[in-house]
């Protein structure tokens, strides 16, 4: 393959290549250029409205699901794209919150997404507040059927959990990692007994650069789309400089490269899951 990696975790998976809306007005003679795994792809919709993708003269496998375009670089996906049932549930607001470029390995971005311990320090006034700094014990497991990581029973006190909240409360979280570069957060909603879903879908430009796409499937009858988007971009804007100033741009998977704390159960599981997959893309080689 002409891509800048031979890691089957990337080549044989469905990788997000941007929102479906980006192909509006395109054609084979006027395609949209998209960067993926170090190469520039040409994407467009044909006369029947079906998305198409090529690299040079080679056609690549592409599909439209969950409001995004997904490309399998090898054309031989190891498994179907993950399910996202909340995307089609009646009554949920579906909001594409846009993509933000981040100059770091996508694995770093997913690990940060799973980390509750940084809430009071990086997202003070929103997702956390000193002195509410303790990460309560939670459960993490890998689903034997889907091989997805699930972190459950996660709770954290937050002064403003979403655009719809204006006061502090203990928020219930569930995390789900579907792919090395795709994860989901389910959190307490403004609708009693329901959970909002927030998808973090990373488009890998290369080993040290991604575009982070955020998708909401939420219950919110008061906020405008602009307010929902602004809230998510504010949170990610606080994370971006932290991520880009890591000592190592790529994820170190060796055991002693960085020391985990008691609240890092999700991170430890994620790194072990990556090692067991033989992950090499975006990974820092052991010294």
Would you kindly provide a written description of the structure presented here, covering whatever features stand out?
With 287 residues, this protein is an alpha+beta fold. The protein folds into two domains: 8-72, N-terminal domain of TfIIb; 92-284, Naphthalene 1,2-dioxygenase Alpha Subunit, Chain A, domain 1 (Alpha-Beta Complex), CATH 3.90.380.10. Helices cover 17% and strands 36% of the residues. It contains five helices and 16 strands. The chain has helices at residues 8-11, 106-114, 119-122, 225-244, 265-276; strands at residues 15-19, 32-36, 39-45, 51-55, 58-59, 61-65, 68-72, 93-102, 139-142, 149-158, 169-179, 182-188, 195-206, 209-218, 251-252, 283-284. The strands form four sheets. Strands 8-14-13-12-11-10-9 form a seven-stranded antiparallel β-sheet, with helices on one face. Strands 2-3-4-5 form a four-stranded antiparallel β-sheet, with no helix packed on it. It starts with 7 loop residues before the first helix and ends with a strand.
In short:
This protein is an alpha+beta fold and 287 residues long. It has helices spanning 8-11, 106-114, 119-122, 225-244, 265-276; strands at residues 15-19, 32-36, 39-45, 51-55, 58-59, 61-65, 68-72, 93-102, 139-142, 149-158, 169-179, 182-188, 195-206, 209-218, 251-252, 283-284.
